[in-house]
Design goal:
40% of the residues lie in helices and 21% in strands. The chain contains eight helices and seven strands; from the N terminus they run βααβαββαβααβαβα. The chain has 184 residues and is an alpha/beta fold.
């Protein structure tokens, strides 16, 4: 099985959104991330994150424990508040631009996006894949964990994005196999 894929990990910085708006409890949060990391590490060798406190950083720690590589992207402007999290990344890459440029272009750095929870920044990262497909010819699959995003996008949005929903590890692995096979 090939694990040469790269995934952006997208989700809220405020991880309490997971506990407040989904069926994942504080007690089950780490186990859920561990199960996702176990599965993703079979297909993906590297994840990209913005190394801020929150779901993507928590996931990246689990992924790295499984031998995966974590690349942290930071904006060119002052990001001193993120420095405390750099040690959780194998590499830090300074993105030439500010926060909005980073959020809109980070999805181009990988083969897919794994969404664990929702936030305005996550919506930006997802939404901009429309333009990557339309103008750059790069179709980016977006795998959305319905345990942490308990709703679907309306058809007026989903028709322009490659949204793939999964509920549980078995469905997640089926999607990862499909994407992995398409990229060989």
């Amino acid at each position: 099985m090939s694990n040469k894929l790269v995934s952006l990990i997208a989700g809220p910085t405020d991880k309490t959104k997971i506990f407040r708006f989904t069926n994942i409890s504080r007690e089950n949060y780490n186990t859920h991330l561990e199960e996702l990391a176990d599965s993703l590490s079979n297909y993906v060798h590297m994840v990209n994150i913005i190394p801020d406190q929150g779901v993507p950083l928590d996931f990246a720690k689990k992924f790295r424990e499984r031998g995966g590589k974590v690349i942290g992207y930071v904006p060119q402007i002052d990001c001193e508040s993120l420095r405390k999290n750099f040690s959780y990344c194998d590499e830090i890459t300074v993105f030439n631009g500010g926060w909005s440029a980073l959020n809109t272009c980070l999805s181009l750095k990988g083969d897919l996006i794994t969404v664990i929870g929702m936030s305005p920044g996550t919506m930006v990262e997802i939404s901009y894949t429309k333009y990557h497909k339309k103008y750059l010819g790069k179709k980016i699959p977006i795998l959305i964990d319905t345990m942490t995003v308990p709703w679907t996008f309306p058809e007026s949005i989903s028709e322009e994005l490659d949204l793939r929903y999964f509920n549980g590890i078995n469905q997640f692995e089926i999607l990862l196999k499909q994407i992995s096979g398409a990229n060989e």
